[in-house]
Amino acid sequence: EKRMVVFVEASVLEDPALARDPRFQGVRDRLQTFRDGTDDLQDRIDFIVCLGGDGTLLYASLLFQQSVPPVMAFHLGSLGFLTPFEFDNFQEQVTNVLE
C-alpha cells in the first residue's frame, strides 16, 4: 500500500506465535531484518512505529546512538505513560502522520 521498507528485529521473524498467524505470512517476505548491536540503523531509518509498552519504546530509542528518528508509539497493554497511541486504529493514525 505505502511505498516503504519495513525493518523488524530478526527475532520477530522467529516468533512462533507470529509464524502461526496467517496474516503475518502475507507480509513476512517483504520485511527487512536487523540485529541489535550488529547493524547500524542510523542512516536507514526515517520513522519508527513502536508496538508495545514503555519498555519497548525505551529499547527502540536505545538502538540509535546519536539522533533518534521520529517515533510513533502504540501501547498494547492497559496503560502507557510514554506510548500515547492506542493500537485499535493504528492504520488510520499512521496514515495521518505519513500524509
Structure, described:
This protein is an alpha/beta fold. The chain has a single domain (6-98), classed as Probable inorganic polyphosphate/atp-NAD kinase, domain 1 (Rossmann fold, 3-Layer(aba) Sandwich), CATH 3.40.50.10330. The chain has helices at residues 10-13, 16-20, 22-28, 54-62, 90-98, and strands at residues 6-9, 31-34, 48-52, 71-75, 85-86. The strands form 2 sheets. The chain has a 3-stranded parallel sheet with strand order 3-4-5, sandwiched between helices. It has a two-stranded parallel ribbon with strand order 1-2. Strand 3, helix 4 and strand 4 form a beta-alpha-beta unit. It starts with 5 loop residues before the first strand and ends with a helix.
Keywords:
two-stranded parallel ribbon; 5 helices; 3-stranded parallel β-sheet; Rossmann fold; 34% helix; single chain; globular; alpha/beta; 99 residues; 5 strands
